[in-house]
Every structure is written in structure tokens, then in C-alpha cells.
């Protein structure tokens, strides 16, 4: 398989008042990406951060900022996030039924990598047109919890979606998000996920570097 592991600590579990030092800490511990959860209080019942925070953080780090947009109108965020220095822009398929082609085009024009996320209740077939389009998304994020909050329990039933996607698209980046940690990573890695978001299991660990390395080893071993 041509895909490489990307371990992405979710900054949702960090100390927001010290975001830059938390970001440096995670990169020094071996993280590949920093996962930034952008929530609008409408698509999900929680409000987190937006372009101003991404812009502030970008001044302190060159790290890949993997932005996960849990918002009702993702198109409204593309230009501001692109200018703020976001690296990846992953929108939800549930929020882009009518405009995903325009979204992908605009995300790429802003120099960001487009991805599409699917909620637990959404069937995997819904992302096929976006992956098979002439101008495709470059990552699929399979939610393994209901979006909105960190610290929830991993939903193993979602691994069937990952298995189907990996079989269909051998070189696609497939990300899993929600409840990933030492006790759940093997299920995700063996199903074919290569981009691993982990918030509470990394930030809550006495030795976050060990957890990051364990997550990476599991993905490498499964390939
Ligand atoms: O998108 C998210 C929530 O909607 C977060 O990225 C996710 O929940 C990470 O946190 P944890 O690893 O603690 O589950
Ligand atoms: Fe997320």
C-alpha cells in the first residue's frame, strides 16, 4: 500500500490558552499533523475555533494543520482558512450535497488539500462521487464518534466503512477520528486507516510520545 501513516493529535484536547506551545510539544513528541476541529455551534452542538485561531497558530509553527470543518456552510470558510494558513480542509458530506464540486475547486485554489468526512449515520457510498470525480477529494475522514466533542467512545462498527474504502481506493488517505488510542488503534489500522486523529488518548497520557509511537507502529504493522 502506498499510503503513509499520519498521526494527528486533536488540538481540541489541548490547553487552548497555550496553543502554540501545545503544538510544539506534539510535534516534538513525533506528531505528523495537528488536527484542528472547527465547529460552528450549528452543524454540531459545540463551538470551537475559526480562521483567527488558525492564523495565530500559523505564526508559530510550520506544521501541517489538518482542519476538520464541522460546519453547516463549509464554502463560507474556504477563503479565510486558506489565507490563515490551513493545510488540509475536510468538509462533511452531509453539509455539501449541492456544492461539493465548487468546494473542492475552491479548496485547491487556496492551496489546501481537500477531504470529505462522513458521520456515523451516513452511508459510505455517499463519498464515492467525490473520490471518483475528475477533481477529487484527496482524503476521506470516517467519523468513529458522533462529531462535536472529544473523549467519546470509539464505534467499532465504522470499521466496515474503512475496509470498503481501502479495498476500493488502495492509495487514498483514509482518516479515522474519535476514540482512537492504544486499545482501538489495531482495529482501525487493520481495516486500512492510515491517518489517525487522537485527542484525549494523547493529551491525557503521562507519556504522549509513547502513545504517538504506538499509533504509528500499529499503522505500519498493518500495511
Ligand atoms: O472531531 C472530533 C470531535 O467531533 C475530534 O477530532 C475527536 O473527537 C478527537 O477527540 P478524541 O480522540 O478525544 O475522541
Ligand atoms: Fe475532528
Short description:
One of its GO terms (molecular function) is metal ion binding. It contains 9 helices and 8 strands.
Describe what you observe in this structure:
By secondary structure, the protein is α/β, with parallel strands linked by helices. It has a single domain, classed as TIM Barrel (Alpha-Beta Barrel), CATH 3.20.20. It has nine helices and eight strands. It has an eight-stranded parallel β-sheet. Helix 2 runs parallel beside helix 3, helix 6 runs parallel beside helix 7 and helix 7 runs parallel beside helix 9. The longest helix has 15 residues. The chain is globular and about 45 Å long. The mean pLDDT is about 100. The structure holds ribulose-5-phosphate (5RP) and fe (ii) ion. Fe (ii) ion binds next to strand 2. It catalyses: D-ribulose 5-phosphate = D-xylulose 5-phosphate.
Instruction: Give the strand order of the largest sheet, numbering strands 1, 2, ... along the chain.
Output: 1-8-7-6-5-4-3-2
Euclidean distance between termini CA atoms: 6 Å
Q: How many distinct helices?
A: 9
Ligand inventory: ribulose-5-phosphate, fe (ii) ion
What portion of residues belong to β-strands? 15-25%
Largest sheet: 8 strands, parallel
- In total, the number of strands is 8
| Average predicted local confidence, pLDDT | 98
Given as residue ranges, the uncertain stretches (5+ residues, pLDDT < 50) are none
Compute the CA-based radius of gyration: 16 Å
Predict the CATH topology.
Answer: TIM Barrel
Proportion of helical residues? 25-40%
What is the CATH architecture annotation?
Answer: Alpha-Beta Barrel
Please, how many domains? 1
Class derived from helix and strand content: alpha/beta
In CATH's first tier, which class applies?
Answer: Alpha Beta
Task: Give the oligomeric state of the chains in this entry, treating copies of one chain as homo and distinct chains as hetero.
Answer: single chain
Q: Encode the helix/strand succession as letters.
A: EHEHEHEHEHEHEHEHH
Shape: globular
